[in-house]
């Protein structure tokens, strides 16, 4: 490539730019592909660098400077590309890991709720009703009024129901009863 082409390129001659592009493009794509192993993305990177070359054309005094710029810029962009891919992979893996944790939590929660519901359904009818109303947030006097029984009877049913549930459920599930 002669000096005349480089001077015309510096002055914004698109035909000179086209000659430089045509003579170096495929070599630069192969170079980029060796880093990232994806020819389509390698072409994208090379095209971006050639656009940058055009914007900075006045800086380059020889084909040697142009090639140095291209190789260095492509190498740096390929490194950034790889970093970005690794970051996306880590993020995706993190999301998958978190989803797995949430899934396990949901399964465990569903099993706990099912065991609790089964145990409550096996209570005598009045105790079951007292516990269900209590779980809905009603106070003892409201439960007594709703069921037309005394407050002392509500307290007795709650006490006996909790005792039965603790006996039927695993100790860790019993803690959930106390929290409800």
Topology record:
Blueprint: H1 3-10, H2 14-36, H3 39-55, H4 63-121, H5 125-135, H6 140-147, H7 151-168, H8 171-179
Describe the structure.
- The protein is mainly alpha-helical.
- It has two domains: 3-90, RNA polymerase sigma factor, region 2, helix turn helix motif (Rna Polymerase Sigma Factor, Chain: A), CATH 1.10.1740.10; 122-179, Orthogonal Bundle (Arc Repressor Mutant, subunit A).
- Helix content is 85%, strand content 0%.
- It contains eight helices and no strands.
- It has helices at 3-10, 14-36, 39-55, 63-121, 125-135, 140-147, 151-168, 171-179.
- The protein is rod-shaped.
- The protein starts with a helix and ends with a helix.
- The relative contact order is 0.07.
- The mean pLDDT is 85.
Look up the CATH topology of the largest domain.
Rna Polymerase Sigma Factor, Chain: A
Rg over CA atoms, rounded to whole Å, is 37 Å
Instruction: Encode the helix/strand succession as letters.
Output: HHHHHHHH
* CATH superfamily annotation of the largest domain: RNA polymerase sigma factor, region 2, helix turn helix motif
Distance separating the two termini: 82 Å
The tally of beta strands, per DSSP, is 0
Tally of individual helices: 8
Q: What does the largest sheet look like? A: none
Low-confidence stretches: none
Beta-strand percentage? under 5%
General shape: rod-shaped
Task: Please indicate the count of domains.
Answer: 2
Mean pLDDT: 85
């Amino acid at each position: 490539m002669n000096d005349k082409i480089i001077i015309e390129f510096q002055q914004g001659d698109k035909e000179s730019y086209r000659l430089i592009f045509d003579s170096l493009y495929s070599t630069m794509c192969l170079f980029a592909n060796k880093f990232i192993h994806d020819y389509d993305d390698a072409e994208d990177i090379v095209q971006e660098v050639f656009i940058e070359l055009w914007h900075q054309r006045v800086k380059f005094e020889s084909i040697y400077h142009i090639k140095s710029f291209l190789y260095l810029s492509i190498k740096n962009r390929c490194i950034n590309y790889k970093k970005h891919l690794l970051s996306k992979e880590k993020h995706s893996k993190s999301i998958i890991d978190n989803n797995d944790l949430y899934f396990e939590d949901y399964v465990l929660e569903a099993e706990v709720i099912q065991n609790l519901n089964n145990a409550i359904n096996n209570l005598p009818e009045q105790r079951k009703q007292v516990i269900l109303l209590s779980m809905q947030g009603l106070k003892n006097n409201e439960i007594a009024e709703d069921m037309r029984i005394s407050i002392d009877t509500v307290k007795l049913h709650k006490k006996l129901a909790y005792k039965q549930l603790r006996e039927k459920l695993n100790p860790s599930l019993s803690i959930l009863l106390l929290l409800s």
